[in-house]
Amino acid sequence: MRRAMNIVPGPGARVLLAMLPFALLVFIYILGSAERRAVNPDDKLLPPISEMASTITRMATEPDRRTGTLVLWADTGASLQRLGLGLGFATLTGLVIGLALGMLPLVRAGFAPLVAVLSMIPPMALLPILFIVFGLGELSKVVLIVIGIAPFLVRDLAMSVGAIPIEQMVKAQTLGASTWQTVLRVALPQAMPRLLEALRLSIGPAFLFLISAEAIAAENGLGYRIFLVRRYLAMDVIIPYVAWITLLAYVLDLALAKIARGAFPWAYVGERR
Amino acid sequence: MRRAMNIVPGPGARVLLAMLPFALLVFIYILGSAERRAVNPDDKLLPPISEMASTITRMATEPDRRTGTLVLWADTGASLQRLGLGLGFATLTGLVIGLALGMLPLVRAGFAPLVAVLSMIPPMALLPILFIVFGLGELSKVVLIVIGIAPFLVRDLAMSVGAIPIEQMVKAQTLGASTWQTVLRVALPQAMPRLLEALRLSIGPAFLFLISAEAIAAENGLGYRIFLVRRYLAMDVIIPYVAWITLLAYVLDLALAKIARGAFPWAYVGERR
Amino acid sequence: MSAIKVRDVWVEYGDQIVLESVNIDIASGAFVSVVGPSGCGKSTFLRMVLGQDRPTRGTLTLDGAPLPAEPGPDRGVVFQRYSVFPHLTVLGNVLASYEFAESPFLAKLFGARRRSALEKAKLLVDGVGLGPHANKYPSALSGGQQQRLAIAQALAKEPKVLLLDEPFGALDPGTRTQMHQLIKPLWREHGMTVIMVTHDLKEAFGLGTRLIALDKKRIDPQEPNRFGAHITYDLDLTRDGPVPVLGFSRPLDGGPSATSSSVRDGADLSARSNP
Amino acid sequence: MSAIKVRDVWVEYGDQIVLESVNIDIASGAFVSVVGPSGCGKSTFLRMVLGQDRPTRGTLTLDGAPLPAEPGPDRGVVFQRYSVFPHLTVLGNVLASYEFAESPFLAKLFGARRRSALEKAKLLVDGVGLGPHANKYPSALSGGQQQRLAIAQALAKEPKVLLLDEPFGALDPGTRTQMHQLIKPLWREHGMTVIMVTHDLKEAFGLGTRLIALDKKRIDPQEPNRFGAHITYDLDLTRDGPVPVLGFSRPLDGGPSATSSSVRDGADLSARSNP
Amino acid sequence: EAAPKKDFNIAWTIYVGWMPWAYAADAGIVKKWADKYGITIDVTQINDYVESINQYTAGKFDGVTLTNMDALTIPAAGGVDTTAVIIGDFSNGNDGIVSKTAKTPAELKGQSINLVELSVSHYLLARALETAGLAEKDVKVVNTSDADMVAAFKSADVTTVVTWNPLLAEVEAEPGANKVFNSSQIPGEIIDMLGVNSETLKDNPDFGKALVGIWYETLALIADPGEKGKEVRAELGKLSGTDLAGYDAQLAATKMFFTPAEAVAFTKSAALPKTMDLVSSFSFEHGLLGDGAKSKDAVGMAFPGGVTLGSPDNVKLRFDDSFMAMAADGKL
Ligand SMILES: Nc1ncnc2c1ncn2[C@@H]1O[C@H](COP(=O)(O)OP(=O)(O)OP(=O)(O)O)[C@@H](O)[C@H]1O
Ligand SMILES: Nc1ncnc2c1ncn2[C@@H]1O[C@H](COP(=O)(O)OP(=O)(O)OP(=O)(O)O)[C@@H](O)[C@H]1O
Ligand SMILES: [Mg+2]
Ligand SMILES: [Mg+2]
User: Fold this and answer.
1) ipTM associated with this complex
2) What is the mean pLDDT of residues E222-234?
3) Rounded to a whole number, what is the largest CA-CA distance in chain E?
4) Which residues in chain D touch residue A164, judged by CB atoms under 8 angstroms apart?
């Protein structure tokens, strides 16, 4: 009998195992939906899958009468653009400030407490001020995402730069590297994989902030749609939309994982997956 | 001239540097507030600090007319209790599932995709279902915090357990350790500091979810108060409350950092701070 | 009993063939020194006997049964790169060996059993000369101190098979001799089978009952990774007789007796200057 | 010119005194072998000369000026625990040495300058025998291969002072001799000052122009960390003459000539069996 | 003083009585009237009602759609002098109390009631309790976000909610839900209007005229009993997340002032100051007028014909029928 920690499933078993919990979840949903429908044929909370499918197909294929767009795709496009911008700026911020904090003791002394404090401010509570400062347009939505996830990225990156063995920093200096060169050639490349991992962990929160921003002021977007139909408890729209968001986020997550492994193979050689 | 990366400020300079940006922020606020007041003497958006101080002092010392409690403390107590429960359960979940995912390839194959997908679901969008399952009371608030941060803790922990050098796992086995013993004596203790770090990073999000939950249905709590008084743009309450939340979160963060360094000194010997 | 049979074992990493058709029978209780040029696959060979890696082809058996494909307490190891537990003190690292065996559930000992295990652990820690550092974490140890800790940890289990990957590489001659004196009686008393990789020929000859050399048999200059290493020399050191020259990949013409005597001299040196 | 003066240097870690009143003048162009028991503070001493750590008390000067308290390109190093860059391939690791110097802003070379740097890097990589592994990442290298990479990297800068911490510890005798043959001409040509920590006395005598031994002068059995190490022996190896026995902390009675001859033998052995 | 502006912003939120702004903007009616007066008007939809008022109060918008109570407690109490240029409708059943247990307001005693605290729902509850001789301390109020009200009512531990349409209709449709009280029992007290910054309006009367022009042209289309009106209402229904039937149902519970004359009459009526007196009492009792407020009269209000309420030195909320009157008289 091998130890449990040494039992590695084959590729086939792996796929099967991965499907299992999802199948179970869907099964439970179907049961729950059927039960609620049996009690109240008009139940809106857990619509059957067929109903959700037809609703979402309509939203994806029939142009909206008023705007002439395909609602699902228009929402997705608008949201993804905001998300992309938000993630992009947040990454840039995280990279620049994180590297500075991680590498320069002076900067760390001056700004680490500030970043720690800023990361604790619940951005949602200060939304009125955000909207005043950044307007109600796209900017404030992007800014909310940036404010929401950048502190995490900054702190995580500073931490991982700080964890690079001191021997490597010393080695770089003995090879004649300046601070800037050390940042560029030693700290940055070694921080990149961890940055991508942190970015992966940020996708969920980023969507959360996006949806919150869209719920307050927007004319389109996935979050806008969810909050629009929420007052009617139109779960036949909400559940597919949430599933769609989850799928998008998951694909993004997977893509980042693949990119990280492709671009930084050295960081994953020891990986026991 | 030393390299920037080698210039380490002394303890005194460190404190000064840390204060600087905060002082600057306060200064900017005072300017902005004065300017708005000059235009509209009743302006509510950026009340002067004196006004906020008197408001918050009143909330902290004078019993509320309606409920007879000291509002600030009652809110803080209620919120901290929810937060504590939420963080506690989330940590437990993160620990158990994270260790299982990190150590057991079989479990990883079966549940890693599920956890990845679950971590992407924006919990706020599925609140209706949460309400039905967990009711509208304290439970659903705690559950929202757990759902909000547990996936991050799980994934982060699984990652850090996966990063323990394979040599150590092999070594433990050659010393006769079973899977359970390896988890208990090799993986768990080495994951603990990282768990505490992850927990520190989760405090911000936890407060965010707490506030969101309290905004949706509550009779007290810091988030409740903020969203209640938002109805009449009482920034003289909101800003001190946000500052108070930030302070609480920061103190919690600091406490966790101290605990981690006290309990796991070996994990911080190489620390270059 | 712990006899190891290796049959036609190949190890490949992608394109690179590391080990090529390795065959060897190791008798129970043998002390096998393994030498060979840097990067020829010595550590790889040990990893395979350990059960950490599996060969691309071929079989390994332990006492006739297929070698368990996972590490176990029957095979102890000292890795080339120190692999002590960073979260345990020196004493804790050694103590863990006893705790795993005696406390299946908590892997922690308490009361009298802890005291007795602590005593054994302390003896070992003193034995490797780390007594004054017993409560330090590994990160505060020098390179050689870490290596000695790993040795103490592996010895605590008194395994049937002990795999050592350059265990004394970072030690000064004096400390090295101390370690030899620590390990030799243990090996003799418990009838352990020891496989030790070393770069020190004195040591290889001085400790081993058998010496094997791993090396590439052919080198294709265009494709250096095309051919793997296998066993090029296999000497029984218990019998007296001429010893061939070990000049990896490029055998020399130098007389065997001359080399052998100078090797013996070297071994003597370390023994003499560190009693 | 690169003469190093160490004056009354103490190093303490909390309660533990590691180095105690170390004094030494190292002439420019010297090759100093440092020996001493495991954990006595050899690596600590090198870290101080490197500028990575600062002494608790005492001063270090380089050519009369206070030693810069930060590492720089004038002092190269090979650490005891391999410290190559894990994110660069073997070639990239060596190339980086040139890129830092020649491209201040991007620290990356392009076009002709890159090609010429690549050529120099390739020569060095071949020189340490890693040609076939030029495109591997360090994690896919054996222990000895990583050490050789670190040596190539340090040599690329041709620093004024070269600090080596057991650079050849994980190498087989053949590869070790190759490394000696690589480093010796470089040292001679460039007039580098080399400080090398080693546990191999043959090597210490064979390469060095001077040998110093670090050791504790007194040991308090109750408080083993109470006394630090200082320089117990300091031999000029360029002059002919009797060589004392090196039995750390416990000097022996063995005649000096006997030891010296066997050491010479040992040095000869490695030279002879690996031409 | 400020130079005459040319560009104006107004914000609106999705609610049955304010949906005409969506149609007006889409169909070009806004542009038509703005062009006529040589100005531009941006009509922005905000999803979060409170946020839209906050933004107006902070000066980001020149006008916003809001209720009479919120106009008093947010911009007016915040020192932003606000004029109600358009009185659009009053709630006539659009707000209501629904319970799984109670059938009359008297039975609410001791109940835990979910509602958006400090909103018109809260006011409605206070008025309902009054009719049964109860006070707010006889019940337990749980603040609940409007977006989650429907889901909350489905939760077993929620028995009573106070809310508005379209949420009200959803909640009422739940099996076992009783209508306890609704705004048709206090007609004319919950008023939906368009508030505009008084100073901006004073400096730019054309802005007010354009707004009124837009409004009544749009209302005429919506009121159209024929196919055209149906089409417009269906679209507005869709925009607010429902359909024609849903929108018509909400409209039925709203007393829309389709003609300017009706609105003028309502604004001039003596009932309005009385209503506002009730509202300011409620607001003061709940601390909505701010810390500085020593009495319910802290914030002054002005009505047509020189009638004022509260502090005459601090008039911050003005009900102005002059622009609607211009529309009624065809003088735009
Ligand atoms: N993960 C890997 N991927 C690719 N090649 C590898 C990997 N691990 C080891 N190798 C290669 O396999 C060969 C043998 O490595 P091994 O560590 O067994 O050498 P060794 O004999 O122990 O050398 P040393 O004496 O230097 O420790 C080396 O050439 C190394 O580059
Ligand atoms: N960070 C630290 N904290 C406490 N003690 C330390 C620390 N670093 C080193 N030491 C101690 O300092 C002493 C000297 O360490 P050093 O690494 O210099 O030894 P060394 O002579 O290089 O030994 P080796 O030959 O084993 O590499 C050791 O006893 C070690 O335990
Ligand atoms: Mg090896
Ligand atoms: Mg050392």
Assistant:
1) 0.84
2) 90
3) 59
4) none
Q: How far apart are CA C19 and CA C225, in angstroms?
A: 11
Q: For residue E166, is the peptide bond before it cis, meaning its omega torsion is within 30 degrees of 0?
A: yes
Q: How many residues does chain D have?
A: 275
User: Do D204 and D198 meet the contact criterion of CB atoms below 8 Å apart?
Assistant: yes
Which residues belong to CATH 3.40.50.300 in chain D?
A: 4-74+159-264
Residue nearest to ligand 1 atom 16, measured at CA: C41
Alpha-carbon gap, residue B147 to B78, rounded angstroms: 19
Distance from CA of E240 to the nearest CA of A (A): 7
Coil vs helix vs strand at C272: helix
Mutate to test the pocket of ligand 2, among D11, D12, D13 (most ligand atoms within 8 A of CB): D13
pLDDT, tens digit, 9 for 90 and up, residues A232-247: 788 889 999 999 999 9
Q: What does the pLDDT look like over A151-207, one tens digit per residue? A: 999 999 998 898 888 889 999 999 989 999 999 999 999 999 989 989 998 999 999
- Reported as a pLDDT band with limits 50, 70 and 90, residue E210 is very high
Name the maximum alpha-carbon separation found in chain C: 65
pTM of the predicted structure, to 2 decimals: 0.86
- For tokens 């995280």, the residue is A94
Q: Are E126 and B100 in contact (CB under 8 A)?
A: no
Would you state the pLDDT for residue D268? Answer: 31
- Inter-chain contact D87–A178, Cβ cutoff 8 Å? no
Nearest CA in chain C to D170: C169
Helices (H), chain B: 11-39, 49-61, 71-103, 105-120, 127-134, 138-162, 166-174, 179-182, 188-216, 222-229, 235-263
Instruction: Among B6, B7, B8, B272, pick the best mutation site for testing chain D contact (most D Cβ within 10 A).
Output: B6
Residue D14 CB neighbour total at 10 angstroms: 7
Assign domain D4-74+159-264 to a CATH class: alpha beta
CA of C41 to the centre of ligand 1 (A): 6
- The answer to whether C12 and C34 have CB atoms below 8 angstroms apart is no
Q: What is the pLDDT of residue C1?
A: 65
Q: Ligand 3 mean position to C250 CA, how many Å?
A: 21
Average pLDDT over residues D55-66: 89
Interface list for C 59-88 with A (CB within 8 A): 68-70
SS (H, E, C) chain E: CCCCCCEEEEEECCCHHHCHHHHHHHCCHHHHHHHHCCCEEEEEECCCHHHHHHHHHCCCCCEEEEEHHHHHHHHHCCCCCEEEEEEEEEECCCEEEEECCCCCHHHHCCCEEEECCCCHHHHHHHHHHHHCCCCHHHCEEEEECHHHHHHHHHCCCCCEEEEECCHHHHHHCCCCCEEEEEHHHCCCCCEEEEEEEHHHHHHCHHHHHHHHHHHHHHHHHHHCCCHHHHHHHHHHHHHCCCCHHHHHHHHHCEEECCCHHHHHHHHHCCHHHHHHHHHHHHHHHCCCCCCCCCCCCCCEEECHHHCEECCHHHEEEEECCHHHHHHHCCCC
- Res. C250: pLDDT tops 70: no
Tell me if A233 sits within 8 A of E146, measured CB to CB.
no
- Ligand 2 residue neighbourhood (C-beta within 6 Å): C 133, 140-145, 170; D 13, 16, 18, 36, 38-44, 80
Residue D49, H or E segment: helix D42-50
| Residue B28: partners with Cβ closer than 8 Å, 6 or more residues away | none
Ligand 2 pocket test, pick from D15, D17, D40, D82 with the greatest ligand atom count within 8 Å of Cβ, gives: D40
Distance of residue B118 Cα from the nearest chain A Cα, in angstroms: 8
Contact yes or no for B127/E151 (Cβ under 8 A): yes
